[in-house]
Design goal:
By secondary structure, this protein is of the alpha/beta class. It has six helices and twelve strands. The strands form three sheets. Strands 1, 2, 3, 4, 6, 8, 11 and 12 form an eight-stranded mixed β-sheet that branches. A two-stranded parallel sheet has the order 5-7.
């Protein structure tokens, strides 16, 4: 239920570099959604290639990670190119929903937007494209460290995404993040109460 803004503020208080946690603002929600999608990262890595992608490549590095993902996982796909290409469409998103994933993130593109909206699973990408990777890029690995949206993500890192943006952080930080968020939520609640009572920002906004 916590927004990404609260999560990243908590991590900042714990000494993490927020610039290394937040993805590029180009990665944004492709369909309307409320709340925050959060889960451990399941990863697919693409690289530039002039060789045709084989069905074995797709099964090994795209389909298998999704099928084997734990419930609640966030599937993160690094496109390996600045070109916007569709990394998935509504059928793939439907499969992710049925398998219990929390959402999908890519620094590439996607398509079938109306179909994805009907499925309802949160999808975050850099844009929309009618066609897929073709012979421009191909999947080369899964569950390896990647650079996606300008940040490093490791398998199992916690990925959080909402209308504000997409971020990732080490899973071992989760207990401390939760504790910090509780303190921040309490402070924000007191600030809201003071402002609603007529206090201005000088007296009402608690740092």
């Amino acid at each position: 239920r916590a927004p990404t803004t609260l999560i990243i503020d908590a991590l900042s208080r714990l000494g993490h570099d927020r610039t290394k946690l937040a993805m590029s603002q180009d990665v944004r929600p492709m369909i309307p959604s409320r709340g925050t999608a959060v889960g451990p990262a399941v990863i697919t890595k693409y690289e530039p290639s002039r060789a045709a992608t084989t069905t074995d490549d797709i099964r090994e590095y795209v389909f298998r990670p999704v099928d084997d993902a734990p419930k609640g996982a966030m599937w993160v796909t690094a496109a390996g190119t600045e070109e916007i290409l569709s990394m998935f469409g509504d059928v793939i998103v439907l499969a992710c929903r049925e398998l219990g994933l929390s959402g999908l993130v890519t620094d590439g593109g996607c398509r079938d937007i109306e179909g994805i909206e009907e499925v309802g699973l949160p999808v975050y990408a850099r844009g929309i494209c009618l066609y897929g990777p073709g012979n421009v890029i191909r999947p080369v690995a899964s569950d390896v460290p990647i650079i996606c949206g300008g940040i490093e993500i490791r398998p199992g890192d916690m990925v959080a995404a909402d209308i504000n943006g997409v971020m990732a952080f080490p899973s071992e930080a989760v207990p401390d993040v939760i504790a910090q968020m509780a303190e921040l939520e309490e402070k924000e609640a007191r600030s809201r109460a003071l402002i609603e009572q007529g206090k201005g920002l000088v007296d009402g906004y608690l740092f």
